[in-house]
């Protein structure tokens, strides 16, 4: 019928293997969501069941103080936890726990934990700093060297690459991405602040000029001039752009640079650029005086809740609440304050680490999580979860955002015995519960609303079928016939699955077909370094074009409930209408 197949021109065609009995169809996908999220996530039976089961899980955790990932001190810890969605201003799940010991109970000003209760949020401030700069300045200044905006660094010492920082290479972007090569801290973690006690530990005695005069525990915050003097005297931790190294100094410099560019303090910029448009009332950059709803948890001998960190606040040290932090996370996922393209660029500005499961963003800590493709499957797909954590004294905070699922998790903890363990264990529990639930809800909605048989009404023998195949990702394109021609056979493809491309309006969703091939099961072949089963899937998009359109492009037309009414194949100049 067709003497020449189009795909014979493409390298690595696997048609010859089709007759082999030990082959299986590949299951490749692109980075990003596989399906659109349901039009109304809160109405999903899976989400409704998860809300109920998660509350029961949390009650059990706080009754017993244990999770599958470890234990924590329930009696000495107070927690506020919320699961957010872009579709609603209400929480998908909200839970508060007040510790039972007299000390932690006495620290609850106002008598009851709720979404407005204040906690210290530590290095969440790094996220607030970058977000504020993006809202105020966009992407304009990030590639500029910091010396352009912090002039004192232009005359910094130059003792060679081992003993001095090459400031000309340090850009604002490298500071925000934790890849500038700067050390972690100039003063706050310097053990010399403890004086004789440090010497008694066996460390050498320092001259008076080498001791800290600011920035240490119980000391006054450093002025900008003092901070710059300390930072200029340090050796680099690494070359710029070499490897992510956590640095509070980087964000102090970023704050100075912003204020020199704009003439506006970061705190004022946050208020006008983020707090006011989002209606935030419970986030502060300076100590809130006599607040009537706060969780005060100071470790012995410290006054963490009231401590003003001065210029360090651009690196961390704000006060905020579950409600406000969740609203900030929701606004990022929604692109409420940034153009969507800027949000996407921001989230894709990343640096690799020595761990294949973690990536550093600007300033996100990004975890590459394996999420089951369905509740019944052992197969998983990789989901990037964007997080930022923070710790200060007895406070620990973590916010997680899943752009693929348009949901997030916010957890704040306070404990005089430090609350980091509680936040870590609860974070694992929340992600292990809600990411699979959101994935399953999207899959279920796609099976109900998009899968089906579609035919053209132009008098030609043309049809298209989409099915949800158990244990496989995406909607399987099981049939694509145009005017009697089997298009998949024409392209010499063994199979294809549709993936949602995050392009949409009220009536249309864009999908691309990922062509799949029959291959040896991965478990029976050696692990490949450069040609694994799916690592080049991203290179196959738009491989076959006809009249300016990709043959793998499909536009799904939907009604107000998200139900597919038709599927358009632009390259075939045909719209297939839902049958039945």
From TrEMBL:
Residues 442-579 form the Beta-lactamase-like ARB-00930-like C-terminal domain. SUPFAM superfamilies: beta-lactamase/transpeptidase-like. It comes from the Eukaryota. It comes from Exophiala bonariae. This is Beta-lactamase-related domain-containing protein. Residues 111-420 form the Beta-lactamase-related domain. It holds the Pfam family ARB_00930_C.
